[in-house]
Amino acid sequence: MTTLLHIEVSPMGENSISRAVTAEFLDAWKAANPGGTIIERDLAANPVPLLDGEAIFADYTPEADRPASMAAKRALRQELIDEITGVDAIVVSTPLWNWNVPSPLKAYIDQIIIPGVLDPSTPGLAGKPVTVVMAQGGSYSAGAPLEGWDYGSGYLNQVFTALGSEDVEVIVAEFGLAGVAPGMDDFVEAKEASIAAAKSAARNRVAA
Ligand SMILES: Cc1cc2nc3c(=O)[nH]c(=O)nc-3n(C[C@H](O)[C@H](O)[C@H](O)COP(=O)(O)O)c2cc1C
Questions:
Q1: pLDDT in tens, 10-21
Q2: 3-207 is a CATH 3.40.50.300 domain
Q3: What is the percentage of the chain residues whose pLDDT exceeds 90?
């Protein structure tokens, strides 16, 4: 049976652009995979803990010597690793915040990467297509005033490629703040066009 891991990050609920675009992907995925299973990991509703010293030292401590709190922190990391390496495909839905990924997503990435367990040497995501849907408030496309300031989409591509996926696609919906933030009304049409294009790309990603 085919299994998809669906990771959500935006806390904006039904106002979230990344969630709306990803919903198109999920509808297409369900249609293409009748009987498939979707594992939901909503980092807005249930964030994972920040990686702390005790969790890090677990991997330098023989299993039998780990105190209970350390063992529990290491067990959570293993649970997250087993989850992402146990599925057939992954979709990550996230905003761009302050030119990078929101901290709950970074915390998740820090939890799942353990040298020798899930890292570029293992590589646990081999054979798994990864789709990243990112909503941005503005645009960082070629020629935009802030071209080059988006450190989020390239970073996520790097993370999932480094972990072994040979098929990472990043779908970006731009200008999310148009019609919302002051001074961006000129970009409302571009926003609508970008969201429509992202939804189409999300559906086509499943068909491909
Ligand atoms: C805390 C915060 C920081 C943001 N930083 C950026 C940014 O650096 N670049 C950008 O283009 N948009 C930024 N935005 C705008 C969001 O990316 C945009 O509203 C997007 O639609 C959010 O995704 P969502 O609708 O799925 O929540 C930021 C929004 C918030 C709330």
A1: 999 999 999 999
A2: no
A3: 99
